[in-house]
User: Which sequence fits this backbone?
């Protein structure tokens, strides 16, 4: 099956996970952290090459 616009030879995108610059909020929640809000808020630094983002979360670590 072929997908329009999909290039199987393209390199896998790399996520920089860089440190926030002064004045940037950074990543929320922190890695391994927990939140008490429903639904939780998610904040991350924009990746210029990203076309979409996928977020996964769970109530349990497993």
Assistant:
């Amino acid at each position: 099956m072929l997908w329009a616009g999909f290039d199987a030879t393209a390199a896998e995108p790399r996520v920089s996970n860089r440190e926030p610059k002064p004045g940037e909020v950074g990543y929320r929640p922190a890695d391994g952290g927990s939140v008490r809000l429903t639904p939780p808020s998610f904040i991350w630094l924009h990746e210029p090459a990203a076309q979409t983002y996928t977020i996964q979360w769970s109530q349990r670590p497993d």
